[in-house]
Amino acid sequence: MGSRFTNVCVIAEQYRGGLLFAIVALVMGVGYVAIGVGTETVPPPLLAAFRFDASASILLTYAFVRGRWRPRTTADVLAIVVLGEFVLAGTVGFLFAGQQYITVSIAAVVMGLGPIVTVPFAYLLVPGERLSRADLVGVALGFCGVAIVANPLPAEATTGSAVGIAFICCAVLSSSLGGVLLSRLETDLSMLSLTGWGALLGGVTLHLVSVGLGETGGAIAWTPTSIAALVYLGVVVGIGGYTALLSLLAEVGPTRTSLTSFASPVVAIIAGWLVLGEAVTVLTLVGFLVVTVGFVVLNRGDFGSVLESIRR
């Protein structure tokens, strides 16, 4: 029995990168379904805020026990603000709002634009970053893919679908800008502490947005399903998913980690079909393929060792 357990541990360590990749893709992909289910009975800003409340309470408690949990420098505070407002509140708030109007698969495909949008932001904000012609082609392909998914006919410009995609695009912009800004800040806070403080700030921001929109506790219709969705989003995604994502980032680097942005939509499409009975259109699949090609063009120099690195 002991030797079998040892063999399992050896295999798990050998394929650690691949296991982390699968965990991130699965957890994040199913998260889109949880958002769709939860926002049926709970207003999106409130559901997003409660998600961050749950994550922050657990993460900050753990960070307090471990020590080095308080921000001490200006860089610490700036990192918390950028993470909380852009990467968390902005991204999740717009994502939750957008998913009221569109299917899980469309939301996941449009969010897959994130790594592509990051490239021009990095060019504008990070010294030394350059855009080649191939990079421009990759970015253009990414936006073309989203345009195919959106299918922007003039008569449908103000429909719920168009509004939902516009919200998701705002989520992508917020996430990409926040990620680039965060990469330029050097902080001594542990990732657990930083994420906990960011979640706390993001939750407060979304609670204020909810109040500004006139939403109250009376607008919430808690059901076993919506409670399960909140637990999944706050604990499984907010803690487990991000922990696996950060571990994967350390294992295989940012380029290979960003491949999860294209694996999680596949999971979301399948989960949306199985759980919610959502149909997947040909345009959605074609758009997803075009976005993926754009990403490959942008990272053409890194794909020779992708499979080997993920397998490691």
Task: List the main descriptive attributes of the protein structure presented here.
77% helix; single chain; mainly alpha; 312 residues
Quick description:
The protein is an all-alpha fold and 312 residues long. Helix content is 77%, strand content 0%. The protein is built from 14 helices and no strands.
Structure notes:
It contains 14 helices and no strands. The protein is globular. Helix content is 77%, strand content 0%. With 312 residues, it is mostly helical. α5 packs parallel to α13.
Please report the total strand number as a whole number.
Answer: 0
Structural class: mainly alpha
Q: Which value, in Å, is the CA radius of gyration?
A: 19 Å
Major sheet attributes:
none
Strand content: under 5%
The poorly predicted ranges are 5-12
Shape: globular
Write the layout of secondary structure elements.
Layout: H1 2-14, H2 16-38, H3 44-66, H4 74-98, H5 104-111, H6 114-125, H7 133-150, H8 160-183, H9 191-212, H10 224-252, H11 254-257, H12 260-276, H13 282-298, H14 306-311
Helix pairs in contact: 2-5, 2-10, 2-12, 3-4, 3-9, 3-10, 4-8, 4-9, 5-8, 5-12, 5-13, 6-7, 6-8, 7-13
